[in-house]
Amino acid sequence: MPGQGARFSVKDTGIGIASEHIPRLSERFYRVDRSRSRAAGGTGLGLAITKHIAMRHDAELNIESRLNHGSTFSLVFPESRLRRAT
């Protein structure tokens, strides 16, 4: 799509994330459920790293979620960062 860049998305059908948590999800070590320990999975760094990689490529990380419907995590790249296959 000329002039629109590119979007890479991952979507799940999990429990979703409450809207008040979404702005903080890309903070280092932030956890929606504080009762989860590191042993239960994850360090809370994945989305923080993803956000910084996106910024280095002039892209942005978008997170959309609805409770009981799942979440969509997207990297949106501007057209200026795309290379056309020849």
Descriptive notes:
It is a single chain. This protein is of the alpha+beta class and 86 residues long. The chain contains one helix and three strands, in the order E-H-E-E. The protein has a three-stranded antiparallel beta sheet with strand order 1-3-2. A hairpin with a 3-residue loop joins strand 2 (60-66) and strand 3 (70-77).
What is the distance, rounded to the nearest whole angstrom, between the alpha carbons of the first and last residues? 16 Å
Report the structural category. alpha+beta
User: Care to count the β-strands?
Assistant: 3
The number of distinct helices, counting runs of at least 4 residues, comes to 1
Class in CATH?
Alpha Beta
Describe the structure concisely:
The protein has 1 helix and 3 strands, in the order E-H-E-E.
Strand and helix map with partners:
Blueprint: E1 6-11, H1 46-56, E2 60-66, E3 70-77
Antiparallel strand pairs: 1-3, 2-3
Keywords:
86 residues; alpha+beta; Heat Shock Protein 90; three-stranded antiparallel sheet; 3 strands; 13% helix; 24% strand; globular
